[in-house]
Write a structure and sequence with these properties.
Number of helices: 12
Structural class: alpha/beta
Number of strands: 14
CATH class of the largest domain: Alpha Beta
Strand order of the largest sheet: 2-1-3-12-11-4-5-10-8-9
Bound molecules: nicotinamide-adenine-dinucleotide, 3-isopropylmalic acid, manganese (II) ion
Shape: globular
Largest sheet: 10 strands, mixed
Strand content: 15-25%
Length: 366
């Protein structure tokens, strides 16, 4: 079967890591008898340079016409890149937010899993790591602060900026249901994270999540305040199964969770709506500090491609094969620089490789 995949290479390390994920899709197609045709879509800084805006209507139409979209990352150095001299709605990130909103991608799944082989790259103590951990961050992606009212103006002679955080019950209910559905397929525990001791939007969040929980009597629900959650992720990450949270909290907590799995370069993600369509991207950014050096970890993007196979194309066997190949390569001791063991004396027991070599090694094992 032929699948149409939209590809957003984007900025910084984006093109480098997407190239490796395509390599993996192509190898999977070769082995299992599928073909993937790629449609390159411009978004982010490269789109600004080519068209003046971070996402054109044509680009949105291209994404809509695909079975799924694979993405690298967008954006530049936010203090030095000229893109950040532009008005906010013309900056690279605005393109990504517009795409998420236009495609109604309200459910963002970010699986944070500690590979047995990467225990030595994890900054936590051995007794905290224990048998390892496996959590799914379910982040609401089309509401909250990211899509509120934004104003910067002078008020009574004082420069003032305002961002509003709004959620309605429907937005909360649909993401909560997704969270509980996922929990039913996992260890049946949901930790709903909010700031209900301060925010009205969090109090509504908690009320609606409680209502949804009644439809899932087998799932254990707990509520946790976001500041405590940030601390618990480091103190005892094994306690978490599904973390269900709003947009901004999910953004911050997922970067934190990624680091306890060894590196942001390992954290994949899927952004889904009510259809089979999805946008698949690593959770990290364009890493301008290492762009062009050939050292970025392509695994998060490769695992995002595996999620694409699983969620949008129903190719479970193929997704399993990709995930297995990643595990195999780690077991054989290959590491990009970001997942090298922390301790000097353990470094000689593994082999450091670059972005393309890591992609080749994984492809060979499919
Ligand atoms: P970042 O995630 O790009 O980088 C943070 C740190 O992690 C850097 O040291 C970087 O080298 C490292 N890192 C990230 N991905 C890596 C990988 N695959 N392999 C090895 N190391 C990796 O975050 P930042 O520096 O705060 O942001 C840079 C730009 O990326 C900004 O413009 C930001 O808006 C954008 N951004 C885009 C996305 C996206 O496209 N989805 C996500 C996050 C940030
Ligand atoms: C992410 C990124 C984006 C976000 C930025 C680039 C808009 O940090 O996907 O986590 O904040 O959602
Ligand atoms: Mn982020």
């Amino acid at each position: 079967m032929d699948y149409k995949i939209g590809v957003i290479s984007g900025d910084g390390i984006g093109p480098e890591i997407v190239k490796e994920a395509k390599k993996i899709l192509d190898k999977t197609g070769e082995v299992y008898g599928h073909t993937f045709s790629y449609d390159e879509i411009l978004m982010g800084g490269v789109s600004i340079d080519a068209t003046g805006v971070p996402l054109t209507d044509g680009a949105i139409a291209q994404a809509k016409a695909a079975n799924a979209v694979l993405m690298g990352s967008i954006g530049g150095n936010t203090t030095t890149s000229p893109w950040y001299q532009l008005p906010p709605e013309l900056r690279p990130e605005a393109g990504l937010l517009k795409l998420r909103k236009s495609l109604n991608l309200f459910a963002n799944l970010r699986p944070a899993y500690l590979y047995e082989e990467l225990k030595e790259a994890c900054p936590l103590r051995e007794d905290i790591i224990g048998e390892g951990f496996d959590m799914m961050i379910m982040r609401e992606l089309t509401g909250g602060l990211y899509f509120g009212k934004r104003v910067t103006e002078e008020r009574d002679g004082v420069m003032t900026a305002e961002d509003t955080l709004t959620y309605n019950e429907h937005e909360i209910r649909r993401i909560a249901k997704r969270g509980f559905d996922i929990a039913m397929k996992r260890r049946k525990k949901v930790t709903s994270v909010d700031k209900a001791n301060v925010l009205d939007s969090s109090r509504l969040w908690r009320k609606i999540v409680e209502e949804v929980a009644k439809e899932y009597p087998e799932v254990a629900l707990e509520h946790m305040l976001v500041d405590n959650c940030a601390m618990q992720l480091v103190k005892d990450p094994r306690q978490f199964d599904v973390i269900l949270t709003e947009n901004m909290f999910g953004d911050i907590l997922s970067d934190e969770a990624s680091m306890v799995t060894g590196s942001i370069g390992m954290l994949s993600s899927a952004s889904l709506n009510d259809t089979k369509f999805g946008l698949y991207e690593p959770s990290g950014g364009s890493a301008p500090d290492i762009a062009g050096k050939g050292i970025a970890n392509p695994i998060a993007t490769i695992l995002s491609a595996a999620m694409l196979l699983r969620y949008s194309l129903d190719l479970d066997k193929e997704a399993d094969a990709v995930e297995h190949a990643v595990k195999q390569v780690l077991k054989e001791g290959y590491r990009t620089i970001d997942i090298m063991p922390q301790e000097e004396e353990k470094k000689s027991s593994v082999t450091q490789v670059g972005t393309a070599e890591m992609g080749d090694l994984i492809a060979e094992r499919i």
